[in-house]
Amino acid sequence: PAVSGVPHLxxxxxxxxxxxxxxxxxxxxxxxxxxxxxxxSGAPLAGKTMALMFSKRSTRTRVATETAIAYLGGHAMFxxxxxxxxxxxxxxLDTSKVVSSMVDGIMARVGAHSEIETLAKYSTVPIIxxxxxxxxxxxxxxxxxxxxxxxxxxxxxxxxxxxxxxxxNLRLAxxxxxxxxxxxxxxxxxxxxxxxTMATPKGYExxxxxxKQAQKNAQVHGTDLEVYHDPKDALRNADIIVTDTWISMGxxxxxxxxxxxxxxxxxxxxxxxxxxxxxxxxxxxxxxxxQEEVTDDVFYSPRSHVFQEAENRKWTILACINQLxxxxxx
Length: 330
Ligand code: CP
Ligand code: NVA
Known about the structure:
By secondary structure, the protein is an alpha/beta fold. It has 13 helices and 9 strands. The strands form 2 sheets. The protein has a 5-stranded parallel β-sheet. The protein has a 4-stranded parallel β-sheet with strand order 2-1-3-4, with helices on both faces. It starts with 16 loop residues before the first helix and ends with a helix. The mean pLDDT is 97. Bound molecules: phosphoric acid mono(formamide)ester (CP) and norvaline. Its EC number is 2.1.3.3. Belongs to the aspartate/ornithine carbamoyltransferase superfamily. OTCase family.
């Protein structure tokens, strides 16, 4: 039977604006305690195990999660697609019941989003979405933490400054595929008062149902959400510019078609500046990055904060795990 009452982080709408803000703040505090003060965590996860059930490859999410769990004194058990029967040779229902009976939490990277929903339905322990074809909620936590750090006024510390005060009214532009990262951005940004504009090629728009939810979020929070096809329209007045690969994991066979369809969507300094982005524009990318979506002159420029963003995967995932497994819920 389905298990109810267990808190999970499956989509970005599982987080209220306050929970989102608290996680960003808590992540900044963990980073400060670990890196500046050199404090140990007190090992609140001692004796506890978290299973990392990943059916796709990962660098950042895996390293972030394993190191976060180690910092909290717990054990991370990596279960890749070659290791366990994740949807192969055994039902997800049975796998979820068995694994959750022995561990304290699960971080799951899956193909179809319905797979993580099934895992969550039968799990007796919290599950965090480590990426599905529709959402990547923990990625956006790192993006927002990075922006919070970048927009915290000099003389103040991010861990004592409210993220709502630094992020409100910033305008983020997405140029590229209507994929899982865009979906998660669209849902989360309104909750911190940020505006989003997007340009995707025809046929590569975001999922219509998720767009509707995002429009609702934007309406509730009084933020702008603008949908375009022409990159120049999305880039106008942008403070932060973001893209991602044009070929997500699982779409490898569409590569040729996609490269052709995305012609004109490569981010270059010229395109961004000719489109009227704000003078102080900044660049983010979840990584892994390919040259086709963004040129080196943007990606490796001082305006790019992609490596800070990648490191912040650790601190935000740490804050999430602490919230779900130590504080027992959001
Ligand atoms: N950004 C991100 O999720 O990277 P990985 O796929 O390497 O985990
Ligand atoms: N859109 C990409 C994100 C990788 C972190 C993918 O799903 O492969």
